[in-house]
Amino acid sequence: MAENSDISAEARRTWMGLLARVPHDALEDAWTKAALSPKFEWLRRPEVGGVMIQGRTGGTGAPFNLGEMTVTRCSLALQSGPIGHGYVQGRSKSAAEIAALVDALMQTGTADQVKDRVIDPLMRQMNDTKSARAAKAAATKVEFFTMVRGEDT
Length: 153
Known about the structure:
Layout lengths: L8 H13 L2 H11 L5 E17 L6 E16 L4 E7 L3 H13 L5 H29 L14
Antiparallel strand pairs: 1-2, 2-3
Helix pairs in contact: 2-3, 2-4
């Protein structure tokens, strides 16, 4: 496997964000279906910790601390050299491992295969979930209007 040096930071940010947010069972199912089993060495075994989540205020966009969230992270190196990092919401060590493996494999010559078997199905699933949620919210939308009264004109 040759290392892929043509990876943009934006592309990596996209797949890392997807892997971090996708439900753990969906990630594990996609990985199982992909039937990939690369050899690797741990750089940092999966560990559970917390991170501070920041929000932004409406008018000025000034940041404020919203609260803490539990995350699991790990790092590994494939035998071929690429290093993968996995950060996932919650306490799933197996999901963090899969995310790190996918990240590492996306930096190799098998990136297209991994994208087709893991990333794209997960992206479709997340988009379908987002669309369903938006449709459900749109069904409850209320439109307000004001009628012009004759004496105010």
